[in-house]
């Protein structure tokens, strides 16, 4: 999406907390002609309650998530044939909404329960973790395109207030990408190729000894793009070394380097989705094409990240201190005791220097600087929680988190200054009921808070036809607050490989002062405000998976349905649907398994239209669509080969869009989705 023009800006972030041993440094540099340049250094903390990722296998994580009285996800990317994009890792997961931008290695919009519903290309609303360490800056923002899903052993998501990390206070919860280690595999080579110039390569090597293990992975992706001016590329290196000591001591060091860059084809009017889905503004001769010519403006985004992290744990399950983010837990009567407790403390700070420049519409050259600001964010958070086994099969859990949050901003060229701070508590109480060994039900009542990020505090107004009049302002905002009631459960019908696995959650969140971000008539973000009339987020998250024998083979199936009913309760848009998320999102896959072969169709279905503006103006909605795919896989020993076709009917549709208070279909605001495409790949694991 287009953002106000600005120069390379620098960001220095520091995260640290009281505790044993953690030094994590994150250097992020983003360069954008029209958007962003973001160098940063981050020292980050580890989440409470988490074991070392190398020893926290999928089954152990599954058991840990069963103790959470609320909606969770556990995805295993290494079981997927294709691993080119974030969607490949998180498809078929209930409650997680991904809206593609250009179909390459760009930054999709990630949403959970409507948190951060309008944010992109810099996201907010969800705490993003890698190996249990927060990737977000202290202001809550993150760049999702820097994630390399090929290196994830599993992805663990705790939706909404079910997050367990002290810094996770938002409505969206947290998503943790846990890396493969040398103890998980010796290595692999992967190659992928596909339509529109898609190329992907990965090589990884792992070693393991009596007390040490290590793994190094290198990957590279190139994509010419489906649309004009939509090429992208990503190169990544990920390495980690672990040490197992005596007395329960474990240490792991992580090194990650990622270089991401992509062109931005930008948005088009609605009628061009059907008439010219690969085109951009600048292909035609209309006044819009002349004013917003993508070839002349050349919008693009680039980010380079160097991340060094070290994490240590020492202790038993009864009392443990984890990383520099201090936490302790125990059960007075031992592991079989009726009462357990946990405490945690964390502190984080970020600083950013941000300069904004106008862009010449004739040639994309940088013009005058119209804003220069120092931005600072800090968070001090304390958590206390307890669980009580009140009866066989029944556990009551409660937690209370206190946060002190600051967001300060000051102009370097004028006297403008805005310091904001908030103190709030986020309590939660929940109950788990083990109805049977195969079925668990839960309920919880929680409170969430979300403070604005740098990108909401600083607003800019830039008219493409009058860049000399560009201006910036500091915006005073309140925290977004919500009270959520959630009911749900998960279970198994049948035994062994034939069992049907199900999980379901129903939630209702009453939200106050929701952070609403909008764009102008040209699709450029112009600002954020708190909606005063109150909003309501409610929905259903349902997932199913299993296998059924069929003669000499079997039928494997999985699917998810995410129902999102988000609307304004009162005020200017009372009764209207909040723009940004499909009301229904259905993903399903059926695969016939015969020996080493698996083949079958898959479906991504948005069955009803979605408003693109908060006024729900007729004719401006994202139309419903269904995308049919086909996949063939062959696995034999260390070898795996796949062939995958997407959108086989070549459906023309809008994959995403910018959000306005009130829109017209003639305004540029829609991103055409990827057309018919084919991808093939080969993997050798040793």
Secondary-structure map:
Elements: E1 10-15, E2 22-31, H1 58-65, E3 72-75, H2 86-90, E4 97-99, E5 109-111, E6 127-130, E7 133-134, E8 152-159, E9 173-179, E10 187-194, E11 198-208, E12 212-223, E13 232-244, E14 250-263, H3 271-275, H4 287-291, H5 294-297, E15 300-315, E16 320-322, E17 327-330, E18 339-359, E19 366-391, E20 394-411, E21 417-436, E22 439-450, H6 454-457, E23 458-461, E24 471-474, E25 480-493, E26 500-512, E27 515-519, E28 525-530, E29 535-550, E30 553-568, E31 584-594, E32 597-606, E33 625-636, E34 639-646, E35 654-657, E36 670-672, E37 677-685
Parallel strand pairs: 6-9
Antiparallel strand pairs: 1-18, 2-15, 3-8, 4-5, 6-7, 8-9, 10-11, 10-37, 11-12, 12-13, 13-14, 14-15, 15-16, 17-18, 18-19, 19-20, 20-21, 21-22, 22-25, 23-24, 25-26, 26-29, 27-28, 29-30, 30-31, 31-32, 32-33, 33-34, 34-37, 35-36
Shape: globular
- Low-confidence parts lasting 5 or more residues at pLDDT below 50? 1-55, 317-323
The overall strand count is 37
Specify the biggest β-sheet.
Answer: 24 strands, antiparallel
Based on CA atoms alone, the radius of gyration comes out at 24 Å
Structural class: mainly beta
How would you describe the overall organization of this protein?
The chain is mainly β. The strands form 6 sheets. The protein has a 24-stranded antiparallel beta sheet that branches. It starts with 9 loop residues before the first strand and ends with a strand. The model is unreliable at 1-55 and 317-323 (pLDDT under 50).
């Amino acid at each position: 999406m287009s953002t106000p023009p600005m120069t390379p800006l620098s960001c220095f972030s520091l995260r640290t907390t009281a505790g044993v041993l953690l030094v994590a440094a994150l250097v992020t540099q983003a360069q954008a002609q029209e958007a962003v340049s973001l160098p940063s250094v981050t020292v980050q903390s580890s989440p409470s309650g988490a074991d070392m990722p190398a020893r926290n296998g999928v089954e152990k994580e599954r058991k840990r998530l069963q103790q959470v009285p609320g909606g969770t996800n556990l995805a295993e990317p290494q079981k997927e044939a294709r691993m080119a994009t974030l969607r490949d890792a998180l498809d078929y997961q209930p409650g997680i909404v991904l809206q593609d931008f250009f179909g390459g290695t760009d930054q999709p919009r990630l949403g959970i329960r409507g948190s951060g519903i309008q944010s992109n290309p810099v996201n907010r609303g969800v705490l993003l973790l890698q190996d249990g360490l927060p990737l977000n800056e202290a202001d809550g923002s993150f760049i999702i395109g820097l994630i390399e899903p090929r290196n994830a052993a599993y992805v663990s998501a705790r939706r909404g207030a079910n997050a367990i990390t002290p810094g996770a206070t938002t409505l969206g919860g947290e998503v943790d990408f846990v890396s493969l280690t040398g103890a998980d595999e010796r290595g692999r080579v992967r190659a992928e190729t596909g339509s529109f110039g898609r190329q992907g390569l990965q090589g990884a090597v792992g070693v393991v000894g009596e007390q040490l293990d290590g793994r190094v992975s290198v990957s590279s992706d190139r994509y010419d793009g489906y649309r004009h001016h939509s090429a992208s590329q990503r190169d990544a290196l990920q390495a980690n070394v672990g040490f197992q000591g005596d007395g329960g001591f474990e240490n792991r060091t992580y090194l990650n380097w990622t270089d991401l860059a992509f062109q931005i084809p930008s948005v088009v009017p609605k009628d061009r989705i059907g008439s010219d889905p690969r085109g951009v503004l600048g292909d035609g001769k209309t006044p819009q094409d002349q004013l917003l010519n993508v070839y002349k403006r050349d919008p693009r985004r680039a980010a380079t990240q160097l991340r060094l992290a070290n994490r240590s744990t020492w202790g038993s399950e009864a009392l443990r201190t984890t990383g520099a983010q201090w936490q302790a837990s125990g059960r007075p009567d031992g592991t079989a005791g009726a009462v357990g407790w946990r405490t945690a403390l964390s502190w984080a700070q970020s600083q950013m220097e941000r300069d904004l420049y106008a862009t010449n519409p004739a040639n994309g050259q940088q013009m005058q600087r119209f804003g220069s600001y120092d931005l600072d964010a800090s968070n001090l958070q304390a958590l206390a929680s307890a669980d009580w086994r009140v009866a066989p099969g029944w556990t009551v859990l409660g937690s209370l988190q206190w946060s002190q949050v600051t967001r300060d901003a000051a102009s370097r060229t004028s006297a403008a200054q805005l310091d904001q701070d908030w103190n709030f508590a986020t309590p939660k109480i929940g109950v788990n009921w083990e109805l049977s060994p195969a079925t668990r039900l839960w309920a919880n009542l929680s409170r969430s808070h979300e403070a604005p990020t740098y990108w909401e505090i600083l607003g800019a107004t830039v008219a493409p036809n009058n860049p000399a009049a560009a201006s910036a302002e500091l915006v005073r905002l309140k925290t977004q607050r919500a009270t959520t009631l959630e009911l749900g459960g998960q279970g198994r019908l049948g035994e062994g490989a034939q069992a049907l696995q199900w999980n379901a959650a129903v939630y209702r969140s009453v939200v106050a002062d929701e952070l609403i971000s909008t764009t102008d008539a040209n699709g450029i973000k112009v600002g954020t405000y708190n909606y005063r009339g109150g909003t309501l987020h409610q929905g259903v998250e349902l997932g199913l998976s299993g296998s059924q024998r069929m003669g000499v083979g079997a039928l494997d199936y999985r699917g998810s349905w995410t129902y999102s009913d988000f609307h304004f309760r009162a005020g200017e848009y009372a009764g209207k649907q909040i723009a940004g998320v499909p009301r229904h999102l259905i993903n399903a896959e059926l695969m016939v398994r015969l020996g080493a072969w698996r083949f079958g169709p898959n479906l991504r279905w948005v069955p009803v239209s979605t408003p693109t503006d908060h006024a729900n103006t007729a004719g401006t909605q994202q139309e419903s669509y269904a995308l049919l795919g086909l996949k063939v896989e062959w696995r034999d020993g260390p070898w795996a080969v796949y062939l995958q076709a997407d959108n086989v009917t070549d459906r023309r549709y809008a994959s995403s869009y910018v959000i306005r208070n009130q829109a017209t279909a003639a305004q540029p605001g829609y991103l055409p989705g990827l057309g018919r495409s084919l991808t093939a790949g080969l993997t050798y694991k040793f």
